[in-house]
Amino acid sequence: MFRIGHGYDVHRLVKDRLLIIGGVTIPYDKGLLGHSDADVLTHAVMDALLGALALGDIGKYFPDTDPTYQDADSMRLLCNVALLIGREGYRVGNIDATVIAQAPKLARYIEDMRLNIAQAVGCDLSCVSIKATTEEGLGFTGTGEGLAAHAVCLLETV
């Protein structure tokens, strides 16, 4: 049996925060604002995985009202989601994600992001695709106000 999920996340870019995407710290003069480390890609992936099994979203499991998750490492949260998926009798078939960012350019970090996500969810690297795109200067991502990410996944029974 197969299940498909979609996730979306967005965070504002601000000064004095690290920019962490897909578990990779990227040198940049701004970072993403959020209760956790605000890893927009990893959050979209988690929501896709949870959504595939109709389990809600990351706010249900890691609420921003809980101080436990203040500055939390999103890759560790993704590992917890992967365990939950496994307990439900599923494993990741594949993940396909897109990060939307006018800047910084992300191409040189994509392979590390893929590896981090594959390791966190326990799948082969070939099952994780990550792409980056700009919005040609349009919208909040195009003007550099924030970043967004979309992710889809296919889960299959174990």
Automatic annotation (TrEMBL):
Residue ranges of domain 2-C-methyl-D-erythritol 2,4-cyclodiphosphate synthase in the record: 2-155
Example of a GO MF term: metal ion binding
Keyword tags: Isoprene biosynthesis, Lyase, Metal-binding
Class in the EC hierarchy, top level: lyase
EC number(s) given by UniProt: 4.6.1.12
Catalytic activity: 4-CDP-2-C-methyl-D-erythritol 2-phosphate = 2-C-methyl-D-erythritol 2,4-cyclic diphosphate + CMP
Positions of 4-CDP-2-C-methyl-D-erythritol 2-phosphate binding: 9-11, 35-36, 57-59, 62-66, 133-136, 140
One GO BP annotation of this record: terpenoid biosynthetic process
Residue positions binding a divalent metal cation: 9, 11, 43
Alphabetical list of SUPFAM superfamilies matching this protein: IpsF-like (SSF69765)
Pathway participation: Isoprenoid biosynthesis; isopentenyl diphosphate biosynthesis via DXP pathway; isopentenyl diphosphate from 1-deoxy-D-xylulose 5-phosphate: step 4/6
A Pfam family assignment: YgbB
Residues annotated as site: Transition state stabilizer: 35, 134
CDD domains: MECDP_synthase (cd00554)
Job of this protein: Involved in the biosynthesis of isopentenyl diphosphate (IPP) and dimethylallyl diphosphate (DMAPP), two major building blocks of isoprenoid compounds. Catalyzes the conversion of 4-diphosphocytidyl-2-C-methyl-D-erythritol 2-phosphate (CDP-ME2P) to 2-C-methyl-D-erythritol 2,4-cyclodiphosphate (ME-CPP) with a corresponding release of cytidine 5-monophosphate (CMP).
Name this protein carries in UniProt: 2-C-methyl-D-erythritol 2,4-cyclodiphosphate synthase
